[in-house]
Design goal:
single chain, about 200 residues, alpha+beta, four-stranded mixed β-sheet, three-stranded antiparallel β-sheet, 4 helices, 9 strands, about 15% strand
Length: about 200
């Protein structure tokens, strides 16, 4: 089970940090043990890391990312998405690309791989196409750039604009159910007022 992380939809340009018109979420998925797609991904990532070590002249244990793109392309959503498209193409005998999944609003089963629409895992990710409202189809939320990690033994502090996380001083928004109309909205100044 794999969800969309980014969908270009009707846009003509990719936002910063996105390198494919459709990316699959790699921070949350489900798989049976020994599934051939997972084997394929592990093999591809292992090859990529060995290649990076060779090109940078270090051992695998000394390998460190030079920049965010190293991570995105070697072990992150770009590598993951490319391997998913390659696997789906292999099992269907036809080239599978972003065009097969862009704009889906219902799960799509391809062989034994269930592709979930963007609302399943990408709600709250600005620019993803998933929107900011939690809906019934939302299954998981992303803590960006380690915003969910403890910092110096303390959890990220909350502010009146949202939950602090990511880079120092950077604000991230965390979805929360709002009070009153029953709709789920992003946490913001309204939360601060409700706590007083």
């Amino acid at each position: 089970m794999i969800g969309l992380e980014f969908d270009i939809l009707q846009r003509t340009e990719l936002p910063p940090g996105i390198f494919m018109p459709l990316q699959f979420c790699q921070w949350s998925f489900a798989s049976s043990a020994h599934h051939p797609l997972m084997h394929r991904v592990v093999q591809a990532v292992t090859r990529e890391l060995h290649d990076l070590a060779l090109t940078t002249g270090v051992s695998l244990s000394e390998l460190r990312p030079r920049n965010n793109q190293d991570v995105l392309f070697a072990t992150g959503p770009v590598k993951w998405s490319r391997e998913i498209f390659a696997y789906l193409s292999y099992i269907t005998g036809t080239e599978m690309t972003h065009r097969n999944f862009t704009g889906i609003t219902e799960p799509v089963l391809v062989g034994d791989v269930l592709i979930l629409p963007i609302k399943a895992f990408a709600v709250g990710m600005r620019g993803s196409g998933g929107g900011m409202d939690i809906v019934d189809e939302t299954l998981a939320l992303h803590g960006f750039r380690g915003s969910w990690k403890m910092r110096g033994g303390k959890m990220p502090e909350e502010s009146d604009k949202g939950v602090k996380g990511g880079k120092e001083g950077e604000e991230t928004k965390e979805p929360e159910k709002s009070r009153g109309n029953g709709k789920k909205r992003m946490r913001g100044e309204e939360k601060k007022k409700n706590e007083q």
